[in-house]
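LOG
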Amino acid sequence: MTAALHAFARAVLPAAAAWVVVLIAVALGCLVGWMASRRDALDTQRLQEVIEALTDRDFERRARLSSPGQIGDLGRSLDALAERLWTGDKKKRSRKDRLRTILDAMAEAVMVTDSHGRITLTNEVLSGLVGFDVEGRTAVEAIRHPDFHLAIEEAQHGVSAVLEFEIDAVDGGVRRVLRASVSPLRHRQGVVTVFHDVTAERVADQIRRDFVANASHELRTPLTAIRGFAETLREGAMNDPESEKRFLDVILRHARRLQALVDDLADLSRFEGEELHLELGPVPAGALLDEVVRGLESQSKAKGLNVVCSGLDEVLPVMAEERALEQVLVNLVDNAIKYTPEDGEVRVGIAEVEDDVVIEVANSGPGIPAKHLPRVFERFYRVDAGRSRELGGTGLGLSIVKHLVAQLGGRITVDSGGGWTRFQLRVPRVDSPRSDTRVSRS
C-alpha cells in the first residue's frame, strides 16, 4: 500500500508544478498587460491635456512621455510641435510688444480692428481719449459716432476715408474734435484708424474768426461815425459854427478811439508773436503802483470814488520790466475806476506772499457774472458791450494784460462776488528762485 502511494505521488506532482507555473505566468502576463494599459491610459490623458492646452493657445504645456511605441512617438511629436508654436508665439508677442511701445510713444491715437470690427491693437492715447481700455472691445463700443461706424464698414470693403466728428470729453468738459483717417489693412482683413485730436485747432480757428468779426465791428463803429459827421460837415454844417464844433469834437473822439484800438491791436500782435523784448531787472513795485494810482487820481475824484490803498509805501522789488509792469497796473486800476459806480470804492493793495509780490485791485459794484469770468481775458470780450464802448474801452486791455503778465513770468486771476470784483497779480520777487530761471524774450 505504501509503495503504491509513493508511485502515485511521483506521477502527479510534476504535473501540478507545471500548472502552478502556468498560472503564475498567466497572472504575471495579466499584471504586465494591466500596467501597460494603465500607462497607455495615463499617456493618452496627458496627450489629451496637451492638445486642449494648444487649442487654448497655451503653448507651454508638454506631454514629456518616455514610453516607447506609437503613443510615446506621438507624445514626442506633439511636444516638438508645442515647442515650435511657443517659439513662434514668443516672437509674435515680442513684435507686438515692440509695436505697442512704438504706438504708445505716438501723439496720435491708433486703433486696429479685425474683420468683425473687434479691436486687436491700440495705444494709451486712445484709451485716454475715451476714458477706458478699448482693446478686445468693438469699434462701435469705443467710439460712439454713426459717421465713424459707417467709415469702418466701408473700409472693410477697401474704401478709405478721412472724417471729423465730436465725442464727449472724459472729464465732462469741452467736447473733443477728432479727425480720423480710416484705411483697410493691406495684407490681411481689418482696418487701421489714426485719430488726431484737433480740438485746439478748431478752438483757435473759432477765436480767429471771432477776432476778425470783432475787429471789423470795432473798427467799423468809429469809422462810420467819422464818415457820417464828415459828410454832414461837407454838406453845409460848417456854416453853423456851433454845429461845426460839436461835429468836429465827435470826429476827434472817434479818431482817438480808433487810434487807441489800432495801437492796442499792434501791441497785442507783438505780444502774441513773441516779438516783445523785455529788459528784466529790479522794479520797486510798491512805488510804481503808487505812481499809477496818483496818475489816475483825477478820474477817481471825478466819480467821487473812495480809493483805499495799502502797502504802497513799501519798496517790494520785483524782477520785471518797468514799462510792461506799469502798463499792466494802469490797465487794472483804470478798469477798476471805470467800472465802479459813482461814490463807490476801489481798493489797491500790495504785499509779499512767499516768493511773490501780490498786487490786488478790487472795486465795488455789480460784479462779473460767474459765466463770464473764464473769458474776461479774451480779445474783444466784454461783459457789457454797450457800457464798455460808452466808457471808451477797446476790449483789448485785459488781453494785453494777460500776455504781458505771462512775459513777466507772473500770474493773474479774477474773481467776483459779494459786491466786489478782484484782480490779483503775482510777480516773482527779485530774490525768488523763479526769477533766476527767466530770461529776456525777444
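LOG (cont.) second protein
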Amino acid sequence: MQEQFSYNKSAHIAGLSSFSAIMKDFSYGKHAHEEYSIGVTCRGRQDFFSNGAFHKSNAGNIIFFNPEQVHDGHAGAGEEMAYQMLYIPEPTLMNLILALGSAKKKCARLDMSLFQDSMLQSQIFSLTSAMNSSTSLSSLEEEHLLLGIAHSIIRIGDGTLTDNHSYGRIDSLLNRAKEFIHDNLHRKCSVDEIANAANMSKYHFIRLFNEQFGMTPHQYVLGHKINRAKYELELGKNAADIAFQYGFSDLSHLNRNFKNAFGITPNQYQKQLSL
C-alpha cells in the first residue's frame, strides 16, 4: 500500500496544525511534541507505548499527548490504520483553558492518553476537516472550534487537570541538563558535556535521564532538533541551511531523521504547506 501523510497549518492561529495519516508498515520511534497532540483513530488499530503503558486504540478512540510526553506508534494487528491529529501550541490551549475559568496555574496536563468521548471526537473532526478544506474558516470560526475543544478537555479532566510537566518532580540537576540541551541545539554536544552541565557522571546521568524522561539523551536531543527544524521549515527556510544550523552532518541526515519522525521529507513538508 502507499502510505500517506498530510499536514496543514492554520491560516489564523500561529502554530496550530492538523495531520492525517494512512499507514501500515511505517512506525514512529520514541519522540515527543512541544505542543498538545490530540487526535482520533479513524480506521484500524493504532498501537503506542507511553507513560509506562502499552495502548491499543481502536477506531473512534481519542489519543491525547501532553507537551513533551514521550510516545511511539505503529499500526496494530498487521492491518492498515488511519488517524487524524491536531497539534495545539501549549500557550494557545492554556489561554483558552484560563479564559474558561479553569487551571489557575501555568500549565495543565490530562492524565489519560487513550479514552472515548463522542463530543471531543466530533470537535476534532470538525476542526481538522475545516483546516483540510479548500474553503478556509474565518479566524472567529476557527477560534470557536478550538474553544470547544478546550472546554471538552476541561470537562474530561473533571477537576483533575494537573500542573505537572512530566508526571512527577523533575530533578533540578536534570532540569539543568534540559536547559543546556535547549540552549545548544545548534551544536553537536556530547553526552559528557550534557552530564557535566548536570554535574553528574556520564553513566549515572544517562540512567537518571532515561528514567525521568523515558528516552536517552541522544533521542531527546535529536527529537528537539527535528522539532526545531520543522518550525524553521514552516518559516520558509531552506532545508540545507537548517541542516547546517542544527548540526546535522548533511541534508540527507536531516531528511532521513525528519522522515522517520513525520513520514515525509522536509521538502515534501514545505510543499504540503505551500511554502
